[in-house]
Design goal:
Elements: H1 2-27, E1 34-37, H2 39-45, H3 53-65, E2 70-71, H4 82-88, E3 91-97, H5 100-107, H6 111-127, E4 131-137, H7 150-163, E5 167-172, H8 179-192, E6 198-202, H9 209-219, E7 223-226, H10 246-255, H11 264-278, H12 285-290
Parallel strand pairs: 1-2, 1-7, 3-4, 4-5, 5-6, 6-7
Helix pairs in contact: 3-11, 7-8, 8-9, 10-11
Bound molecules: zinc ion.
Zinc ion binds near residues 38, 42, 201 and 203.
Length: about 300
């Protein structure tokens, strides 16, 4: 009987371990991801109303309390005041574009000229031991040029990596990307820069953000930018959705048993707080579905 029990136990164990193995092969997904909260910077700077500092501070405190460890709070970094910023900051960001027209209209220079400016920023940051995060806008489409070549994005990522960026965030600024385009883009980028250094920054303008994030997860990306309550509209389409909401991303990851370190209920509470403070409906579907009661 004892022998039988042992065999039985072993069979059960094998059965479950095969099941677990099968499951992870099926998903092939990472077990831990990093979420970069961009609400206080990217989100609020795109809101029409000016947000009082005390509200902003309370919002940031609530985000931190939910477990978010990477919260972007600074505005656009101008090379002129980088040395001062660098002295007090742990991290600075540089913003590149994959399209000439976008660079001209937004930073008033060509893509190549923008790299000359970045060099000054990265050199100042290096001296102060400050990390530099690179952003590339319009990676899946440009409001002026339409399609953007994945090879062009890959080249820019490589330049940013060579300049010393520890992480490069690929922004679908106008939210037009779909999962096939995301996979194609990441395939090209991975030829020049390892995907361990790549983050994706999806906007939900066309309702594709979570699908694109899942596609990126399947490709091996483990860093995702998002904004509580989906703050931040699309500057090129009035009234359109902004960044993918942090609540929705955390819900997705929880469902896939992927750790984020973020308490879903607390981040929902932060989203509700800022939405009511600026008098705007939350852009988070999960926030709306779960309501504010669950935060109590
Ligand atoms: Zn954004």
């Amino acid at each position: 009987m004892i022998i039988f029990a042992l065999i039985f136990q072993e069979t059960v164990f094998e059965f479950f371990s095969h099941l677990v193995c099968y499951f992870s092969q099926l998903t092939g997904l990472p077990t831990v991801v990093k979420i970069v909260e961009v609400g206080p910077r990217d989100g609020l700077q795109n809101e029409q109303e000016m947000v009082p500092t005390d509200v902003k501070v309370e919002f940031i405190n609530k985000l931190a309390d939910s477990g978010l460890k990477n919260i972007e709070v600074t505005s656009f970094v101008s090379p002129k005041w980088v040395p001062q910023v660098a002295a007090g900051a742990e991290e600075v960001a540089i913003f590149g574009a994959a399209s000439e027209s976008f660079a001209k209209k937004n930073i008033n220079c060509s893509v190549d000229e923008s790299f000359e400016r970045f060099r000054k920023v990265t050199e100042a940051a290096k001296k102060e031991n400050v990390l530099v995060r690179g952003y590339v806008s319009c990676v899946l489409g440009c409001p002026y040029e339409g399609d953007v070549k994945p090879e062009k994005v890959a080249e820019i990522c490589k330049k940013l990596e060579d300049m010393g960026c520890y992480e490069i965030s690929l922004g679908d600024t106008i939210g037009v990307g779909t999962p096939g385009a995301m996979k194609q883009l990441l395939t090209e980028v991975s030829r020049l820069v390892p995907l361990s250094k790549i983050a994706v920054h999806c906007h939900d303008t066309y309702g594709q953000a979570l699908a694109n994030i899942l596609a990126a997860l399947q490709m091996g990306v483990t860093v995702f930018d998002s904004s509580a309550a989906g703050l931040g509209g699309c500057p090129y389409a009035k009234g359109a959705s902004g960044n993918v909401s942090t609540e929705d991303v955390v819900y997705l990851m929880n469902g896939l048993a992927i750790q984020t370190g973020v308490d879903l209920h607390k981040v929902i509470e932060a989203g509700h707080y800022i939405s009511s403070a600026i008098g705007k409906k939350s852009g988070s579907k999960v926030g709306a579905a779960m309501g504010v009661k669950c935060a109590l």
